[in-house]
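The records we work with from here on pair a chain with its fold. These numbers are not coordinates but entries in a learned vocabulary of local backbone shapes. To see the layout at work, look at the sequence and tokens printed below.

. . .
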Amino acid sequence: MSEFHLPPPSLEPFIEGYWHRSGHFAQEKKVRVVADACTDIILEFAPTPWPPRYVIGTQLAPIVVTLRGDVDRSAIRFRPGMAWFFLRRPLDGLTDRVVPMTELEWQVPGTLYERLAAMERSIDRSEALSAWLTDELDRLKPDPEEVGESERLASALSAGTPPHDLPTLMGRNSRRLQRVCRERFGATAIHLHRLYRFRRLYERLQGGGESLADLAVELGYSDQAHMAREFRHFAGTSITAFLAERGHVGNLQDEGKTWLPILAPD
């Protein structure tokens, strides 16, 4: 079972939401998760061979997740550029990595983890995480100007602004802008431009019925072949395969013959 809960308004600038996955997988399943610019803190409440609390940084490539046996997992999904205000460390050191929280200064407290583990409903876990993050936000007191800067940069990237236009748009010199991209978003401006363009393509393909040649022109790819290469790089599968699987797959693509549901807000 997959569930997704939104944060309270006070946390919306920082947190995209909380996702939860639970169930028993008698047969091992391998799922591929396409690249995105979010940072996730994941909490495992069922026994696993890896640490129970860890961070997944910005994904510049798809990752494969194995599900087997009992799964009980909750996570905080930060908006792009916003995890930095809590973790207080450069995000480029977490890119494409799974990092135990024991390696970070900022921690999900053990007492909170134990309380979450005892909760049966995912909505209760989401509310407890929101209460804790609200307290942390009050304690950390992020600079409003820096928060606004990250929001503007994310909006510019979402709108498809070319990397060479970002310094002028943001009113920053190139060196300052590149530092913000690496520290808060986990990648260079060029990589982020490619990733955000892929996400726009991915979303447009969800609807179906559009000409691939027209999409390539509209989204700024040099041609349809370039678009196909970029899609495979970030999704781990071809556009043709994705279109054939679209009705079954969503964000999580099973490597076998059955499918797992999309993990997204209702």
About this structure: Confidence is low (pLDDT under 50) at residues 248-266. The CA atoms of residues 134 and 217 lie 43 Å apart.
